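Tokens for ABC transporter permease. Go.
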Amino acid sequence: MTTTTVEATRALPAARGSRAKAFLRRRRPLLLGTLGILVMLAAWQVCASTGVVDETISSTPLRIAAAEGHLFGSGEIWAPLRLTGLEFGLGLGITIVAGIPIGVLLGRVRFLDEMAQPVINVLNAVPYVMFLPIIIFWFGIGNTSRVLLVVWAGILPLIINTIAGVKHLDRDFVRVAEVFCAGRLFFMRAVALPAALPFILTGVRLALARALVGAIVAELFLASGGLGYFVQTATANFDMTGAMAGIVIMAVVALILTRAIGYLERRLTHWSGSQPNR
């Protein structure tokens, strides 16, 4: 065996170890997050099994897992999940399509921003549920009211973050655009929006979470279907396992969507140099 072959054989385990370390470093937030969830579930199960908490009130992870299998196996959960998904998707779509242009406009036009700030601050400080009677009075208790509540819940964080992103543009970007005599629309499209993208995607992540809460709240008060109504019905029937199963589905959906937005942030704003560890 030659010296080169010996060195290559010795280097192979080191290379494998380096790749394993790199993989663990990249996946560390996911692995630690999964470990935290498993520890919480294990503690919950132990507390329920030892009588520290009442199983009839808190249920247990094992019971909830069995209930999830029954709900998806029988197809009972698909109709509520589909209804909530439609309301949430439509409301979030309207939020993004309307919220980003409004935020960009307010961020670039000073007098409009000064006019809108008191209204935005008031609406953001007052819980949107407080406006539910007004929404019902104006739009009834149909799909329009539920979608409007989703939009109301999610649009303000998106507008506020977009305004902040547009206001904090790098001065070098603005100077370069001025040197090349960029028009207002071109500047908005080619400079302001890309530069504000980290703020905008953070706003989308916040809007997503609040919009999902808005969809569930709307179903608690205004619907005869959906995940919120499913959980409310299960709770009214003292089926805490079924109610917790519905809540777990909401949590998983929220986690998946949040991770998806985090992935987009890493892919689209890697140039910003301020990426969060996820």
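The CA atoms of residues 12 and 18 lie 10 Å apart.
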